[in-house]
Each structure stands twice: as structure tokens, then as C-alpha cells.
Amino acid sequence: MKSDAQLKKDVMAELEWDPAINASQVGVAVKNGVITLTGHLDTYAEKNAVERAVARVGGVQAIAVEMDVKLEPNHRRNDADIAAAAESAFKWHALIPAERIRVKVEKGWVTLSGEVDWEYQRHNAEKAIHNLLGVVGVSNAITLKAQAAPGNITLRIKDALTRQAEEEAKHIEVSVKGSRAILQGTVHSWAERSAAAGAVWAAPGIAEVVNELRVSG
Fold first, then answer.
1. What is the C-alpha separation between 84 and 23, in angstroms, rounded?
2. pLDDT tens, 101-156?
3. What is the rounded distance in angstroms from the CA atom of residue 193 to the CA atom of residue 33?
4. Contacts of 210 (CB under 8 A, 6+ apart)
5. Strands 180-187, 172-177: parallel, antiparallel or unpaired by DSSP?
6. CATH 1.10.10.10 fits 74-144, yes or no
7. So what's the architecture of 4-70 in CATH?
């Protein structure tokens, strides 16, 4: 198990390694494997790049994000322009049902609403906003359309986890109550934890995933 000092060193090295990140603007604190990120970043895209970089580091138990976005003058856009850019991004994205998503922008903060069929559609809608100029944050209030889950859904989820990572799946317990899936057990990294949740979201009839997986030392 990595010490907090070693983990901090690894996180900072990963931030410095990523060319999309200005590591000098990011503060890193570590306690019992929990990473706290602070700082003021120039774009929302960079904020997301920082979070992804930290998630790649082995030994990370959890991530607390206390960073905010302070736009440089050349990155600022008015709310109407941001809303138009968002709607255009949706229309050109093959995996997003643009006609079912509504966009509201207030002082650079984008709120998405509407109803879609699958989590990947909701996820891609939010992801499409990340790199738009002028955005300082995103609230994803898109809901999933209710659909009945097959009777063997728990087994199908377990099979999917096994296909993707057989050894890790042995340490993951899945329970389904209605449209809610609960993951419990241990994985080796924060990235594996996110991947397991992603596999569950692909199951038909699942509208909520409660990820209680722990990252082992």
C-alpha cells in the first residue's frame, strides 16, 4: 500500500505528465488515500482533465474536488453563445438525442434537463459540454426513461463484469432492487471502480447505480 507521501508524489507527477494540464495551478493534498484537489483553473475542460488524470493513479481511494474555473478573458462567452454552441454540439453527436435535451445557461453554468433512454446518452450529453469555451460548470439533470428490467438482470450484470475483468469481478457483489443496482466489494483502483459502474449502467432497466465499491490498498 502506498503511503500518502508517495501517493501525492505520484499524483503530482501524473498531473505534470499530462500536456492538457497546468500542474502549477493545482493543489494536491492526501490523507488516508483520499485526494483533495484545489486551485483556480482557466477552463472547465482542464478541470475535467485533472480529475481524469488523478483517477488514473494507482492507490487513489477517493477524490474530493474543490477546484473552480476562473475564465481568462479570451475564454469568456455570453450565455446565449454557450447555449447555441451546446445545441449545435448535440446535433452533430451521433450518440445524443438532441431533440430530447434542454439547455439552460446562467453565468457560464450549464444545466441539462430532459429524458433519454440510456445512461450513455446522458453521459455523452454532459461530456459534449466539457470542452466548450465559456463553460464554468455543468449540472446534469437529465433523467432516464423508465423501462422494465429483465428477470435475470443481476446475472446478466455479473456476466458483463466477468467478461470485462474476470478476476476483479470475483470481488464484486451486485444486487438489484427494482431499477436500482448496488455494487459492493473491492477493486484495485479508482479507474476500475468507475469501469464497474459503467458496465452496470449498460444494463436495461437500470435507472440508478449506487457504487459502494472500495479501492483496496
1. 31
2. 999 999 999 999 999 999 999 999 999 999 999 999 999 999 999 888 788 899 99
3. 15
4. 180, 181, 182, 183
5. antiparallel
6. no
7. 2-Layer Sandwich (3.30)
